[in-house]
Amino acid sequence: MKPEPLTLPPSPNWYCTRCSDAAPGGIFGFAARTSVFLVRVGPSAGANPGAPPFRVVGELVGHTERVSGFTFSHHPGQYNLCATSSDDGTVKIWNIETKAVVTEHSLHQHTISALHWSPTVKDLIVSGDEKGVVFCYWLNRNDSQHFFPEPRTIFCLTCSPHHEDLLAIGYKDGIVVIIDISKKGEVIHRLRGHDDEIHSIAWCPLSGEDCLPVNQEENSEPDIPNGKLVAETPITKGCYLATGSKDQTIRIWSCSRGRGIMVLKLPFLKRRGGGVDPAVKERLWLTLHWPNNQPTQLVSSCFGGELLLWDLTQSWRRKYTLFSTSTEGQNHSRIIFNLCPLKTEDGKQLLLSTSMDRDVKCWDMTTLECCWTLPSLGGFAYSLAFSPVDVGCLAIGVGDGMIRVWNTLSIKNNYEVKSFWQGVKSKVTALCWHPNKEGCLAFGTDDGKVGLYDTCSNKPPQISSTYHKKTVYRLAWGPPVPPMSLGGEGDRPSLTLYSCGGEGIVLQHNPWKLSGEAFNINKLVRDTNSIRYKLPVHTEISWKGDGKVMALGNEDGSIEIFQVPNLKLLCTIQQHHKLVNAIVWHHEHGSRPELSCLIASGSNNAVIYVHNLRTVLESNPESPVTITEPFRTLSGHTAKVTSLAWSPHHDGRLVSACYDGTAQVWDALREEPLFNFRGHQGRLLCVAWSPVDPECIYSGADDFCVYRWLTSMQDHSRPPQGKKCIELEKKRLSQPKPKLKKKKKPTLRLPVKQDSSIVTEDESSRETSGPVENGVSDQDGEEEAQEPELPPSPVVSGEAVSCIAVSLGVEKSKVTVNSKATSLKKEPPKEKPEALLKKRKARSMLPLSTSLDHRSKEELHRDCLVLATATHAKELNEDVSADLEERFHLGLFTDRATLYRMMETEGKGHLESGHPELFHQLMLWKGDLKGVLQAAAERGELTDSLVAVAPVAGYSVWLWAVEAFAKQLCFQDQYVKAASYLLSIHKVYEAVELLKSNHFYREAIAVAKARLRPEDPVLKDLYLSWGSILERDGHYAIAAKCYLGATSAYDAAKVLARKGDAASLRTAAELASIAGESELAASLALRCAQELLLVKNWVGAQEALGLHESLQGQRLVFCLLELLCRHLEEKQPPEVRSPSSIYHQWATGSEGNLVQRVTGVWRSTFSVDTPEQCRAALKKLQNVKYPSATSNTPFRQLLLHVCHDLTLAILSQQTASWEEVVPALLQAVLQSYTSGNFTLMQEIYSAFLPSGCDYLRDKLGDLSLATAAFKSLEAFFIYGQLYEVWWSLCGPGPESSIWVKSTVPAEQREPEDSASAEDTEPGAAAPQPRSSPPSGPGLRLSGESERLLSSCRELFSERHASLQASQRTVAEVQETLAEMIRQHQKSQLCKATANGPSTDDPGQEAEQAPSQPQSPSREERNASVSLPELTRRLTEANKRIAEFPESVKAWPFPDVLECCLVLLHIGSQWPGAVNSEMQQQAEELLQKYGHTRAYRRYCQTLHT
Prior knowledge:
It is built from 44 helices and 59 strands. The protein is of the alpha+beta class.
């Protein structure tokens, strides 16, 4: 087996009573999210000498929701078995050796909360759920039994280690019961004493009750029997039980007596430097461990993460010992959830603990000191960054609100990790080290914060006062630009911090003064480049290593290159058509300095492009250049690319991280995939290449893991396709979605207190007490990374069904109402109004007074007397006043003050009964309109009618009432109506802003267009804002209308083109042409033509190119391409031809050769017939440069590049510029040759040089500057025909060819399976024939062949042979050096892992497997050649190469030694075909220059 990659795992799950366990022999496992991670502990871990003896060795993947329980089998012979329970309702049994599920069951109907593998019955797994149901599952016989001892929520359960039928269960309300599973779950004891949740149950390791002195405790506490008294049986004979509870106590129970014998109260421990945090008392998890060899001692957790060793022999004194008292900072900083013992192979007694601080710690039970710590991640690994100063320090930005700094070069500890959390308080999404200052780390968060940490100190970070509105996606250090660069040298920093946020802007922060305002570089870009159109939304920023050039990636897929100091736009790369996620510049310290101009980019469209900007950066163009062709294309990923990193140890080697779940290493120069890493269980988010190890790469993903892996240890070379990709997608989709889980609980399972506390845990104390605590594994903090393709849970779908049912019910009720209405219409006309009048009977305005007037006769008489007394008395006494207050309805008949009191009482009654409108009418009757309006506004009960009568109270009252009503409508989400009321008081701008801020852009534009001046900037801002939102949501056509409305046709065309299909590109090109944006129109039309080219729609492509006059040259290229494709297709068998091609009518003719047909179509169709027109087209096409081809270049792209060069050649021929014909024609040949397409190369020669190169030689003359290029062109011509002669001799066709004549009659020939030029694969420049049979009796060379073989002297160029030998020597030395480094690293790795049995023999074999295919000569050579010798060879070879003239180095030449071998082979198989002088010359060249590894074997074969 290959060794597992070094893993920084996810955090162990919180609030689970048993989610970690250890098996005898040194395997520890803990549940993290939906998986279980396995750690090998002890000597067999194979750790480096001096490092802690542990290593993460694997992961158990299979559950779809959080793993809530994990337990090993502790029975000899099955230590490799373990069990897990999960919130997905299943219990799975695993084999950790195969990491596969042995069996599983889904017996529980509710959330499983406890799990344990019986220590006495080898196949019994017991589990309990939140409803109180206990299931016993026997693995071997696949049988189960369930019990329901108590209708309570089970928190924990533990099987007795002494009796196979006893089971202790702890409940949420503090009850502990012991049941006998052999008696159908009969309750033996109910142990009452705890007041809160039972977190842990531990049985005493010794049977009987003689190990603890309990007399003192019995005297100090009265005996309180718990449960029922039973006679002594073997079951109840005696054993102690310890329980830990949230009520802060540990209780020791006697099973024989069924009562508590000891109570231990947790102490509040003061830490150094401060008192007890009050919040700590509320946050407690009390877990226990009873050591096997120490029955009088008990280990427990405490409030703040401490571990206590209790002395049970002196419990009345509450004697305990703190773990790790001698070393500061070794304890956990948060509460501990699980403790599990482990005995290693060398006999050490260890204790492993998991905690809320996200650390796994190992304790030596002999010394009570911490042996080692395994850090973990509680969120997505968003960002990785290696320090350029402190080499080996890797910073990790995590979604749990903490930054980790991992010293990856530490020899003593593979996991030397420091955590930084102060001042962060949010997900860390971006990191960047200062290039020169040690320990200076910039970070960005998902809430828009940008800060600087000094990792060398404990100081809190500096936070920039300028926040991004959305997530910070990228940080970069670069030189200051104006206005920050305008100060003197001492007044400004040499480097400033740039941040790119999700809102699409890039800010420049002054690291010396983060409290000052950061500057938006868009203003400088717009001013420097005089940009009129809308700037694109920026998504990525990257500075070149020398700090002179900056690249900005944009949401529309474009990449802009700017030059300091004023950010002059040099060029725009229009390659990606989706959001750019990653841009990286090649390093500048390689063996090839020109590669520093390479820039790699990845986007949402899964293809990685590499561009060579050397020409642009060196030429420094006056106006921006648009680049539409990549230097290299890296295809293979199947999802969006999220991160890229160049190897600092290689030239042109790149690693990419992708949402397809893999990281891919590429040889970017050859476009070849090299290694593919598939260790993650989720989507990759970041990747970084080790600065010290050429094979080591670090990657982070949304599976909460960071892996350190080696390229040579990977089984795959390219990203997964088809089935494998689907499997990875399913694996990713199995990850949990917390919100769905929350919806699921009310329907299926009871909520657990801890689950709710996961989210609400101590939110107020995040800043002061520690890092952000956001759940079991920060799942609730990562919702934004869940893609919409995640399938809903069954409960969600159930809710959807129920919603449908409700909506159907509503529809049915509507139908019923309609039927009633219909039946009413059928009734007699007279009855209808009466029925309606009864239903619409108005509510009384004075219901209380009316009801009081309907009382008994005595009360009414009393009213009359009180009223008479009040009206005739000169002064009212207290009795009468009291009567009037009690009988308020008499106010109708007395004075106004009493009437007001009556109205006030009636109004209160209306309000209490829910009729505020009647209260308002009463107030209007009083004449207090302003009061009515104020009261209604305070209660949010303004209505249209109230506002309508507001002008009665005055103009100012009306204005105030309208504004108040508009605010009320906003609270009621009636924004359009609110805007209408604002318009009624002529507040147009406020109304427009209200509609805009609530995304009613269509209505806002209508209002602004109707009420504001056309030139008002608000209107343009509305168009641009709406357009940006529509563009972000993918509504490109409507967004284009908005930009057109804002008179920004450039932006309209750009957004239309974002769709990327041919129709959209054509419309965008036409739009840009109409608006006068000629350069944009040309680039879009060319893109449209290229898209149509992919589907072989030649007619549509020409129509698209015809949209712009500047593309006349491209039309000629496409015309030649169409004719060449037609020409090649005609040579294919009819059944192979593509029926989908749409050719022009002029492409179907066959008069003349290809060049004549091309020139004829140019004259007749494109009106290119004069030298001036050809010269103009030639000038335009010469400005277009295509990169050199590789063996991985797609055939259609290769054809386009070749036809571009052929078009240049024909145009130069038409203008009689013969010195330009030869280089263009040679370039087309070289493109075919370097891509390995020999057939295409021969077609070029047959079409453009049917009679050979003599015609061109005559046109050039002897003194031409293109003589060197011509010799190269002629050499390739001879080279191609040499191979054709060889093939013809190896297997002639049924008819004699121009190369071979057959003297045997046709009827006597036997059919042979020969290889023709069309049959050869285009994988190599010089394909070998299928066989080399000896010359037949009826074969002889034709005169043409004899002339060709004699002309092969041109291929025997001494200078080119020497140059090629030197180049081969350089390549061989570089390859040898790389091989030596790789072998050295492998030997170091083998030494490091040689001690562990798990990686002893199989591991070494697996590691050395990749090197086995090497030939013995290579291994001997590597072993015998020293490094100084290799350096000397390299220096001498480079010196020889430098001495050659540029004319020889500029134009490639066929491999001279290859031609010698072919010629000698022909001479050996067909004697007399090659004269002896040429054979001798070929042998001399091979002997002189064939010393390199590539030709040594062939030379040895030749001489023997």
